[in-house]
Amino acid sequence: MSTKKVALVTGITGQDGSYLAELLLEKGYQVHGVKRRASSFNTQRIDHIYQDQHESNVDFKLHYGDLTDSTNIIRIIQEVQPDEIYNLGAMSHVKVSFDSPEYVANVDGLGTLRILEAVRILGLEKKTRVYQASTSELYGGLAENKNAKGFYDENSPFYPRSPYGAAKIYGFWITKNYREAYNMFACNGILFNHESPRRGETFVTRKITMATASIAKGKQDCLYLGNLNSQRDWGHAKDYVEAMWRILQQDVAEDYVIATGVTTYIRDFVTMAFAEVGMELTFEGENESEVAKIAACNNPLYQLEIGKVVVRVDPEYYRPTEVDLLIGDPTKSKTQLGWEPKYDLAALVKEMVESDLKLFN
Ligand code: NDP
Ligand code: GDR
Q1: Which ligand number lies closest to the CA of residue 318?
Q2: Which residue in 102, 187, 292, 349 is a FRET match for 212, CA 20 to 30 A apart?
Q3: Domains along the chain with CATH numbers
Q4: ipTM of the complex
């Protein structure tokens, strides 16, 4: 019998799942992942850690599954008997959640319930610890809900602004409820935005760094974006999966905010990315007041030029309700978990642009 700790990761083919699987393997875990059946291969982010199942001592195994399928979830958990479950699986795109709200409720909301209930049905409440991938989208960016220092923390009220946020709020509360009702070790990590070269191509940071690389290499003319005036607290996914693991190693199950405590305008991320390839973008109204800049960015005709126009605003990318500003207070995670991010935004942007430049030759 192996004495290794056993982890089950849903969403293993995603950005966070891939970094978390690497981390857990490094820490000597046996790692099981749930992947969805797709018509083409969807394991690009984890192919480098794949292990031939015919070898002895295989520590990485994938199971076909889906968070909408209770019987499948129960069977996988029964087979794997995990010490830790990381529930990262989700339809994670906020804008897309407005197009498929019922599906998002099923996967992101009820999917969490299915995991927790499977643990209970199988009598694993004492053995299996559960991490739930909660999100800063729960706060909704309402100015009046920030704490006295001007940040969102573990005590800030929630006000989700999308079907994604509404589904995730169910996931948050059902996790907390199972902890209180059944004494399960079930925790929420309330993670603010985190990015990496493995970030999905339609999230704003990756969309920007890919387009920066593509434009720099002369493969693309123009990048179309939506709201340039929102602000996000961006960290690196590698740092954030370390926090997930730490949350499940504590003596007591609690919820934690994971953030950098620094927030940045989308438009400033754009200028940082283009600066990496030596293109100094200036925004129209750069020397004007913040109010004038925001007004300029909300004009669909607004454009960024460097000799030629490289960024245009397309209202198609606006959301019916927007989260304007996110900034998290990581004091609790720093003091209780001893968590400290290694990357700042400049290092993150540099790594993403450098990685994307390799895609275009
Ligand atoms: P990704 O979108 O990169 O990955 C999502 C993962 O969930 C993929 O493996 C995807 O599989 C899987 N998935 C989607 N639908 C289902 C389903 N029906 N059943 C099973 N698995 C499914 O997200 P991230 O890695 O960025 O995020 C991980 C988690 O953390 C998500 O729950 C997200 O909502 C949450 N989160 C993310 C933050 C961020 O900034 N990245 C911040 C806060 C929370 P497939 O590859 O087949 O599509
Ligand atoms: P977010 O990330 O909604 O914060 O959710 P995203 O990168 O999609 O948007 C961030 C901000 O950028 C604005 N924006 C655009 N967004 C996209 N995707 N595409 C564009 O062209 C564009 N132009 C401007 C958006 O309006 C928004 O204000 C992410 C996801 O990972 C969630 O799963 C996670 O829970 C939260 O972060 C925390």
Answers
A1: 2
A2: 292
A3: 6-197+235-261+325-343 (3.40.50.720)
A4: 0.99
